[in-house]
Design brief:
Enolase-like, domain 1; 2 domains; 11 helices; 323 residues; alpha/beta; eight-stranded parallel beta sheet; three-stranded antiparallel beta sheet; TIM Barrel; single chain
Amino acid sequence: MELQTWSEEWELWKPFRISRGVSSAANVVVAELREGGHRGRGEAAGVEYHGESLAQVRQVMEDTVRENPSLDRESLQDLLPPGGARNALDCALWDLEAKREGCSIWDLVGIEPKSLTTVCTIGIDSPEAMAASAVELARYGVLKIKLDDDGPVERIRAIHEARPDAALIVDANQAWSLDRLAELARPLAELGVEMIEQPVAEGGDSALIDYEPPLTLCADESCNTLEDLEYLVKRYQMVNIKLDKTGGLTAALELARAAQECGLELMVGNMLGSSLAMAPAFVIGQMCRYNDLDGPLLQREDREHAMLYAGAVVSAPEPELWG
């Protein structure tokens, strides 16, 4: 088995601001595994707030395959911890297996695929600019709104007035305290917000145990792997599964199925990236209430054989892309 890796930068249509920073491009790593005339690919952004860099992700992948030339998905789970390197290699191994066996990812995972409806994300800006973005996104029935602690109700009110037809979900990216959440939750619910992602800091959400929210709370930064479930089920009603954090599709499938057994609802998310990153996330999306697969929609360009977006409706990836 041979591995090639490279970094890519996908320019965004406009700067994308969340509570912890601004991005102007999606920066990713691609892993390409070749064996017996077949090729499998995977893409990862890594988890920057866990200290991962693209250079580190590439180096870990190259060292792992060099030392384990007969690598498979099962051994990979023990060789590498969760994160971007394991994600890209795991997704490449799924793709390679499908190509080698002459089947589809759906045959391998035992799921009958259906088209999905993705949310579309609006980054933090002035209330007027965010409302204008909501109007521009008229084809999207579910809008995901990034917020910080600066005028969150005013921003949501402007969006709701501009798009009263839209379902709204909010991502605070750990920006609030529990007291601030309790202050904001009901006004946001009255403005059409259905769910809030990660309102409080990872590791600081123990106070949520006794909190009875008027709308769904979803763990994002606090949801990494299967080991987090016991902690999360006492604090949240939903989990956002991201393959860069689980370390690939293999672990994401385990987490999704276990979370459902615990009574948690599911969302699949992304760390920005091209259709090659969205394709394995689309598999998890088959089990989810909300699908955040809009990474390519935020980019000026996408890769060849890109996933098909008809407004908010996303079709299953073609085998030429992945799986």
